[in-house]
Amino acid sequence: MELKLAFNQTTPVSTDLHVVAAFSKSTEAKGKKSTQSLVNGHWSKELKEAFLKVNSNSSFTGSQGQSVLFPLENGTMVYALGCGEKNKIKRESLRKIMANLFKKIKDSHSNVSFDIDALIIKKDVTGTIDALAESLYMTNYAFDKYLTKKATCKLESITFQTTEKKTKQKSAEKSLENAKIIGDAVAFGRDLVNEPPNVLFSTSYSKIIEKDVKNIKRVKFKALGKADLKKEKMGMFLSVNAGSAHEPRLVHLTYAPAKLTKKTKHIALVGKGLTFDTGGYSLKPGGSMMNMKYDMAGSATMYAAFRAAAMLQPNVKITCILGMTDNAVNEHATMPDSIVTARNGKTVEILNTDAEGRLVLGDCLDYACDQKPNVVIDAATLTGACLVALGTEVCALMSNSKKLSADLLKSSDSVDEKLWELPIIDEWRDDMKSNIADLKNIGSTRFAGTPKAAAFLQEFVQEGVDWAHLDIAGVGDSAKHLPYCPSKGASGIMVRSLVHYMTNA
Ligand code: BES
Ligand code: MN
Ligand code: ZN
Fold first, then answer.
1. Confidence band (pLDDT; 50, 70, 90) for 32?
2. Does any ligand 1 atom lie closer than 6 A to the CB of residue 473?
3. Residue whose CA is closest, atom 8 of ligand 1?
4. Domain annotation covers residue 22
């Protein structure tokens, strides 16, 4: 599907289907229920007349979710799209409007034009195009590679048309390009998560990334295997991989900007890449094990964000560390009560082999800090408790830096992804201490499971490094509440926030 722009355009571009926005206004009559009425003053005379011909006593009020079809004299069909009250429209409403429109027309029309004039918020043409395009790319996603009958889409092109001056088209084109880069990255990340564990495991996962980065300029790839992890003394990471049929992989990517100086900001991303989490000897019950292929969503999120950022070429250095293994059981698997030594020298009593993500991440965080970044951000499907706290709608943020958490909250807010900060308190840090080792990998109660996991991770963040942890256990999977995310499978949520953060750092 192709997305096009037509500036300085006053008549419908498409003769197939032309979409126009319609709004509603509610009037409060004293003592009576408020009534909705159609607002279409921005339509052309021709449009208004054609509408009245077939809808003289229509119930169409331009409310959100409503739509009406009518023909123009030349046969072009017009689709009037109810967008609700005009003054309530924000960027997120545009994404939702676009997603719902796409779903309605994708199987019935091939070439569609969409008059976006009335939807331009605060004269921000590029911002509006950005939100619409981003949503369109995110909505046009299907994981159908294992279906013999593929997903259908008749739609070949959408043209956003506007009466805005041609001089503004260049910057709008740039925002289309950027939206495509981000949309492609989100799709790539979703594909990785949706891939089943018999296809995507540590070694195959690493190869997929190696192949993909070949097309990105200024990016270097390196992968560490089992022998390398032993040399690195990554005792925690190796303990998780002990029961696996596959060698672990630590993928190390770097993006260096063209103007790299000593002062260039360096951001490190770290992702949990558990290609399947059985729980290990602390085996998950069948129901909870289902869908644990998605336990690598943290790494897929970080890779997708890295991929998009590297293509957008910001003036920051980016390191991306992905810790890949599955958590399986065989005769070599780590037994609960084992004590291992982390890369940073701390000893850890593994009381529950299902609290494995923090073991992999802890060693990866220490490794990432050795690269001397200013900032380290990790993403992980780390705790079931995160779903209890914030549901599937809100991502949890924990940090050792007020500045970094404020920056991330700002970025998430500007792309309308929901992020909420949880504290890490000394009581929880104390609760992660063992009496026979420096640390234990679970707390003594199941309360505050999400920030206690963060308190554990912080033990592996080196002094002076600003660190933030994103627990995406809730938001990583299907986001049914968002029309531009699939109702089942990987969501791709948080990629846009991270890209925004890196490109505005
Ligand atoms: N991958 C899981 C967390 C998870 C659970 C994500 C459910 C999404 C849905 C993680 O490795 C895990 O098993 N965590 C345990 C930690 C516990 C043993 C302290 C959990 O949350 O139960
Ligand atoms: Mn687990
Ligand atoms: Zn896990």
1. confident
2. yes
3. 473
4. yes
Residue 383 Cβ inside 6 Å of ligand 1? The answer reads: yes
Mutate to test the pocket of ligand 1, among 237, 383, 428, 442 (most ligand atoms within 8 A of CB): 383
Question: Could you tell me if residue 266 is left (phi over 0), alpha (psi between -120 and 50 degrees) or otherwise beta?
Answer: beta
- The per-residue pLDDT for 393 is 98
- Annotated catalytic residues are 284, 358
The response to whether residue 392 sits with its C-beta less than 6 Å from ligand 1 reads no
Taking CA atoms only, the protein residue closest to ligand 1 atom 5 is 384
- Is pLDDT above 80 for 31? no
Asked, for residue 190, whether it belongs to a domain, the answer is no
Q: How far apart are CA 207 and CA 149, in angstroms?
A: 28
**Is any ligand 1 atom within 6 A of the Cβ of residue 240?**
no
Ligand 2 centroid, distance to 472 Cα (angstroms): 14
CB 301 within 8 A of CB 476: yes
Q: What is the tally of structural domains in the chain?
A: 2
Ligand 1 geometric centre to CA of 415 (Å): 28
| 3-state per-residue secondary structure call for 301-335 | HHHHHHHHHHHHCCCCEEEEEEEEEEECCCCCCCC
For residue range 291-327, list pLDDT tens digits in order: 999 999 999 999 999 999 999 999 999 999 999 999 9
Q: Which domain holds residue 67?
A: 2-179
CATH number at 396 reads 3.40.630.10
- Cα–Cα distance measured from residue 231 to residue 250, given in angstroms and rounded to the nearest whole number: 13
- Can you tell me the distance from the alpha carbon of 259 to that of 102, in angstroms, rounded to the nearest whole number? 40
